[in-house]
Amino acid sequence: MEEEEEAVAASAAAAAAASGGRGAGGEPGGCCGCKGVRGCLLCEAAPPPQISANFVYCPLTGFAVGEKQSEFAGWAFPFPGVFLLEGFISADEECKIVELMDCSAWKPSQSGRRKQDYGPKVNFKKRKLKAGGFAGLPSFSQEIVTRMRSHSVLKDFSPVEQCNLDYGPERGAAIDPHWDDWWLWGERLVSLNLLSATVLSMSCDSEDYIQLFPAFLQDSKQVHSSLTHAVSQEHWPKESTSLGGLRSTTKWGTDPSSPTRSVLSKEVVVAIHLPQRSLVVLYGPARYRWKHAIYRHHIKSRRICITFRELSAEFSLGGEQEELGQKLLKTALTYQGIPV
User: Fold this and answer.
1) Residue 84 in this model has a pLDDT that exceeds 90
2) Cβ neighbours around 143 below 10 Å, total
3) Does the pLDDT at position 231 exceed 70?
4) Going by C-beta distance under 8 Å and a sequence separation of 6 or more, which residues neighbour residue 190?
5) CA neighbours within 13 Å on the CB side: how many for 116?
6) Pairing mode of beta strands 209-218, 250-254
7) Taking CA atoms, which of 29, 224, 260, 335 is between 20 and 30 Å from 103?
């Protein structure tokens, strides 16, 4: 996520330099980590446009449901490839983890973020990597990874890289829509959301159409059809509430015999609400078809994201670079690392 965005920004910075100018970021004096077209409150000339979602992801059903105030209210479509778990760690564990992270230096990064990297040095454009000073993931992550594996979607997950990102509203921190690299990083992207709730915004550049199904309220408390789904009437609690509000649900259904409508994929933005201390996994279509972003207006207070990545098939058992991959994985799982 972080490295790929910086590679794009570096290319933009080079283009700006060649034309005699510079991008929005990169103020002299190193007051922020922005490069090229990236910017933050410390360096930008004007704030970027803020994108609003027209669908909200419902973790109980796996459907994206039309926002009530949008033209898609009352419509829904399947949104596969997301696993969201509330309360993955306790408040006490969160405090201890953040305290340990703050004992190490945070480096300025793109778009107002700060970062700590635990992983190999990678040049994604040239497809080269080296271990550098990589000595493993941090010690506090061992229990996190063990706990992840108790869930079927992550039972064989072995992270080889960890990136801690610190978002602060005073810096206008954000991250633009992007895909994580898939030459080095594998199927699942796993993130732990700390200190505050936020929204992960999913968007797609495709010219394909998405078929929408009408959603309707059910009076019955029983679900009589495989096409009937339990969805909160508000789709998701406000940021100040817990996910527990979803447990009192209103019944929604989709009727395949009713007229459908379609919408261009590139006109859809799906909001995935991430409660504080929740764990989210992106895989399949949510990983490879949809870009993900965190917009500035969704950072209300300090937020830390811990993202774990696994190796791609090329670096895994049977892959062309299996030997290098196994060496990196062995290092990662010593849990003796410091930020590189």
Assistant:
1) yes
2) 13
3) no
4) 148, 154, 157, 159, 279, 280, 281, 307, 308, 309
5) 19
6) antiparallel
7) 29
pTM: 0.83
In single-letter form, the type of residue at position 123 comes to N
Please give the single-letter amino acid code of residue 73.
A
Q: Please name the residues in contact with 49: beta carbons below 8 A apart, sequence gap of 6 or more.
A: none
Q: How many residues appear in the chain?
A: 340
Task: Yes or no: say if 38 and 112 are a contact pair by the CB < 8 Å rule.
Answer: no
Give residue-wise pLDDT tens across range 64-77.
999 999 999 999 99
Instruction: Measure Cα distances from 76 to 57, 192, 229 in Å.
Output: 9, 27, 11
Separation of alpha carbons 1 and 294, rounded Å: 12
The tokens for 5 are: 């965005």
pLDDT digits (tens, 9 = 90+) for 137-189: 999 999 999 999 999 999 999 999 999 999 999 999 999 999 999 999 999 99
Could you tell me the two tokens for 142? 């061992």
Whether 139 and 335 have beta carbons less than 8 Å apart is answered as yes
C-beta separation of 293 from 205 below 8 A: no
Residue type, position 60, single letter: L
197: helix, strand or coil: coil
273 has which bridge partners?
199
What secondary structure letter does DSSP report for 181?
Answer: P
Give me the DSSP letters along 246-277: GGS-EEEEE-TTS--EEEEGGG-EEEEEE-TT
CA 64 to chain centre: 17
- pLDDT of amino acid 96: 98
* Distances in whole angstroms, Cα of residue 113 to Cα of each of 50, 299, 307: 17, 11, 14
Handedness of CA 29, 35, 37, 43 (dihedral sign): negative
Q: Using one digit for the tens of pLDDT, what is the confidence trace for 5-26?
A: 544 444 444 433 333 333 333 3
Measured between alpha carbons, how far is 17 from 26 in angstroms, rounded to an integer? 11
Q: What is the largest CA-CA distance in the chain?
A: 67
